[in-house]
Amino acid sequence: MAYEASVILVRYGELSTKGKNRKDFVNRLCENTKNQLKEFPRLTYEKTYDRLYIRLNGEECEAVSERLQRVFGLSSFSVAIKVESVLEVIAEAVLALAKKETGAKTFKMMARRHDKLFYPDSDGINRHCAGLILANTKMTVDVHHPDLKIIVEVQRDFTYIMAGSIAGAGGFPVGIGGKALLLLSGGIDSPVAAVLTMKRGVWVEAVHFASPPYTSEAALDKVKKLAGILSGFQGFVRLHIVNLTELQLAINQHCDPSYTITILRRMMVRISEKIATSHKCLALVSGESLGQVASQTIQSIQVINEVTNFPILRPCISMDKVEIIQQSYKIGTYETSILPYQDCCTIFTPQNPVTKPTVKKALYQENRFDWQPLLQKALADMTTLVISTQEESKDYL
Amino acid sequence: MPNDLKGYLDYASTTPLDTEIRQTYEGLLKAYFANSDSLYKDGRQIETMQEESRQQILKLLGLPKHQVIFTSGASEANNLALKGTAFLHQIKPGRILVSAIEHSSVLNSAKQLAEVFGFEVVYLPVDEYGIVKLEALKKNLTADTILVSIQYVNNETGTLEPIREILSLLREYPGVLLHCDCVQALGKIDLSEVKDADLISLSAHKIYGLKGSGVLLKKKHLPLVPLISAGQQEEGLRGGTSNALVNIVFAKTLRLALEKQAEHFEYVTSLNQKLRKGLKDEVIFLSPDNASPYILSIANLKLSSEVWMNALEKAGFLVSAKSTCSSRKTSDSHVLVAMGIKPKLRQNVIRVSLSHLVEPADIDRFIAVNKEILAHYGL
Fold it and tell me: Bigger pLDDT: A395 or A276?
C-alpha cells in the first residue's frame, strides 16, 4: 500500500512563552499562514491548542511546505501520513516510511498517545514499530543522534505518522508587534529588510519615492509587484508613493554634486517621518548595509539619521551583499528586484559622491534653497495604494 | 481602429488593425472553421480562397517568378530564409553575409548558423548613415558564399539600403542568393527595386493587418529546407494546419496598403519635413535626409532615452527607443553602434515613426512638448 502525505502538522514557536497574549498570537499566526498559502485553495485548516493541522486535500505537498517556511512565528512543521489508529496499520505505515528514507542509517521511534486509552502505551508502540524496522531494514537504533526521527501521534480515530520535522522561519507572527514604515526602493535590500522586520512581529507599511519621468511606470510596477510579494507575509501592504522629481531637480540645481545623494536621503527621511507619524508607525525601516555604497558609510548614516528622532531599523546593516541576495531568493523577491529599471537614487548619481559627509556641510547645502514648500508639495501629492495577495479575476484568462 | 491614436508615434513597432480588415476577418471567422486541407467542400473552399490570396499578393507586388510561403510573421520568414537556405549546404557549410544592422531575427539566425551549425558569418559594416559599404560586400564575396541578407529599410533609422546596386553586384555571382527583409518598406516604398531578390520577407501587422501573419516570397525554382516539418501545407516548406483565414486577409491588407501607397507617402513626407523643421534646434537627426519618411531617429545631449520616453508618454506621446523587439535589453542599439554613433549620444535616442493617421496638429504638439521636456528635465 502506498502512503501519501495528507496533513501538515504545524508547531507554534516562541509563542508558548507569551502567556495571556497567546490567543491573539495563535489567531494572528493562523491568519498569516492562510494568507501565505492563499494560492492553494483546496487546503483546509484545523486549529488546536498547540498545533495547526493543514489538510492537503490533494495540493502539492512540496510546494505548500516551501511556502510554509515563509511564515513567521512557526517553529517547525512535519508532513504527516494519516492512518487508522490500529497498531498493525500504524506499524506497517512506519515501516513503509522508514524504507523510503534510504539515506538514514540510524533511527529513533517517538510515539505519543493523545488518546490514553489506546493500547499499548507509547513505549509499547515504539518497541513494536522499531522491531519491525530492525527486522526489515539495515537501520539501527540511535536514541541520541538518530538520522531519522519517526514520530507517531495516536489520536482517538486516527494516527499521524511523520518522519522528522522541517524547521520553520521562527520569529513572531507578523502584526503582533506594532507598525513600522519601510523605505522601499525597488532594489534587492529593502524587501529583505522588510521581511526581517516582519519576522519580529512588526507590521510593515511602505513608502516609495518615484521621480517621473526619470523613473518609469515600469519601475513603479516593479515596486508594486514587490509590495505584492511582501503582502504574502502579512495579508496586505499599504504602499505610499511620493513624487520627488521637483525636489530632486532643486537639489540638483542648488547643491554641490558630491552632496546631492546625502541631501536627497535626508529629504526622504524627513518625508518618511511625516508619513510614519500620520500613519501611526513607530519606526522607519531601511535596507541599508554598512559601507555598501557612499550613502551607507557610517558617516553618511549619521548625517542622514540626524534629521529624525524616529528609530530607523536597519536589519541588513551587517550583511554582505551575497547574504542579502540569498535572503531575497528565499523570500521570493530577487527575480523582481533585479529587473533593470532606474530608481530615483541612480539617475542623479554624481561622479564622486561624498563618503564622509558632515552634518554641518549638509545643513549648509540645504540652506542654499527653500526646500520646505517642495517637501510639503511632495507630501500633499502623495498617493496611497493597498496591495494585497488577493488575485482579481480576469475574464481574458 | 482604436479611437485614441492621438500621440501614437510608434507605427514602426506595429499599427492598429484596419477596420475593413477587421470586418473581413470577423466575417471569415464566423463563416469558416474547416481545415484548408480537408477534401470536403468547406475545406476546398477555404483552400481556394487561400490560393487566391497567394496569387493576388504576387500580382499586386508584380512578382510572377516568386511563390508565397505564409508564415507566422516576418521573424519566422527571416528565420526560414536564412536557415532554410543554409541547411541545404550543411555538408559543406559556406559563408553567409549579413549587414550589421539587420533585425534581430536575421542577426540571431545568422549567429545560430555560425555557433551551432558551423557556417561562416560575416557582418557587413555600414557607414555613418547606416548604408552598407559595397566595397565590404564585394571584398567578402567568396566562392563559397551562399547567401547575402540585407534589409531594404532599416527599422531604427529608416535608412534605405542600395538593393539595386547590391543586386547588380551579385549578378556576377550567380550562386549567391539575396534575401531582403522588406518589412519597413512594404506599403510605404515601392518594391520594384527589390524584385529580383531571391527571398523577400513581409509582415502584415506593420501595414494595418493582423499580427501573427507574415510571408516569405521565394523564387519558385529555389529549394529550401523547412524549419517546421509536418504535412503538405505550403508545399511542404512550412508544416502545420494553415492559419488560413489570416492568410486569406493578407492579400486584402496588402491591396489596401498599396492602393494608397503613393498618396500616403507624399503626406507622410510632409509630416516628416514638418517634424524635422520643428525639432532641428533641440535634437540631432540620426536618420539620413533621404531615409524613409516614416521613421525618424533623433538624439539629444541632455536626456537618456528612457527618461525622454517616460516624459513623452506622460505628455501622451508613445515612441520607441530602439527596435521594439529588443526593448527589454539594456544594451546599446546594435544599429547605432554599427553606424559609429558615440556612446553618450546613442544612450539618448528615440525613434519617432509616422503614419497617414498622424495629423499635422499632432506633430505641432509633439514639437512643443518635446521642447518643454528637454528644457525642464534636461540635465
Answer: A276
Same domain, A244 and A101: no
pLDDT digits (tens, 9 = 90+) for A341-377: 766 556 677 778 888 999 999 999 999 999 999 999 9
| Cβ–Cβ below 8 Å for B307 and A340 | no
Cis-peptide, bond into residue A213, ω within 30° of zero: yes
Q: Which amino acid is at B103?
A: H
pLDDT number for residue B22? 98
pLDDT of B93 higher than 60: yes
Q: How far is A243 from chain B (nearest CA, A)?
A: 14
CB contact under 8 A, B306 and A216: yes
Its pTM stands at 0.83
- CB nearest to A212's CB, from B308, B314, B379: B314
CA distance A275 to A181: 8
Q: What's the gap in Å between the CA of A73 and the closest CA on chain B?
A: 40
Q: What is the pLDDT of residues B246-259, one digit of tens each?
A: 999 999 999 999 99
Let me know if residue A397 belongs to a domain. Answer: no
Name the residue among A214, A249, A340 with its Cβ closest to that of B307. Answer: A214
Give the DSSP per-residue string, B91-138: SS--EEEEETT--HHHHHHHHHHHHTT--EEEEEPB-TTS-B-HHHHH
Q: What percentage of chain A has pLDDT greater than the value 90?
A: 59
* The pLDDT value given to residue B324: 58
pLDDT reading at B325 higher than 60: no
Q: Is residue A1 part of a domain?
A: no
Question: A171 to each of A45, A181, B106, B207, how far by Cα in Å?
Answer: 21, 19, 55, 60
pLDDT at residue A18, rounded to an integer: 60
Contact A342 B308 (CB under 8 A): no
Interface ipTM above 0.90: no
Residue A174 lies inside a defined structural domain of this protein: no
Residue A168: HSE in the Cβ half-sphere, 13 Å Cα cutoff: 25
- A149 and A200, same domain (yes or no): no
Retrieve residue A254's grid coordinates.
Answer: 542648488
DSSP state of A185: -
Q: Is A214 part of the contact surface with chain B (CB cutoff 8 Å)?
A: yes
Q: Which of B310, B314, B320 to mutate to test the interface with A (most CBs of A within 10 A)?
A: B310
A217 and chain B: CB distance < 8 Å anywhere?
A: yes
* A344–chain B nearest CA distance, Å: 12
Q: What is the CATH number of the domain that holds A103?
A: 3.30.2130.30
Which residues of chain B are at the A interface, by a Cβ-Cβ cutoff of 8 Å? Answer: 306-311, 313-314, 330, 373, 377, 379
Verify whether the Cβ–Cβ distance A213 to B330 is below 8 Å.
Answer: no
∠ Cα A239 A242 A243 (to 5°): 145
Residue ranges and CATH numbers for the domains of chain B are 19-259 (3.40.640.10), 261-377 (3.90.1150.10)
- pLDDT number for residue A91: 93
User: pLDDT tens-digit profile of B121-164?
Assistant: 999 999 999 999 999 999 999 999 999 999 999 999 999 999 99
Q: Calculate how close chain A gets to B1, using CA atoms only, in Å.
A: 20
Residues in A closer than 8 angstroms to B330, CB to CB, are 340
In chain A, residues with a C-beta closer than 8 Å to the C-beta of B314 are 212-213
Distance CA B196, CA B167 (A): 7
What domain count does chain A have?
A: 2
Are A213 and B377 an interchain contact pair (Cβ–Cβ within 8 Å)? Answer: yes
Mean pLDDT, chain B, whole residue set: 95
Q: Which of A125, A140, A169 is the last residue of a domain?
A: A169
**Strand A106-113 to strand A148-154: parallel, antiparallel, or no bridges (unpaired)?**
parallel
How many contacts does A have with B, using Cβ atoms within 8 A?
28
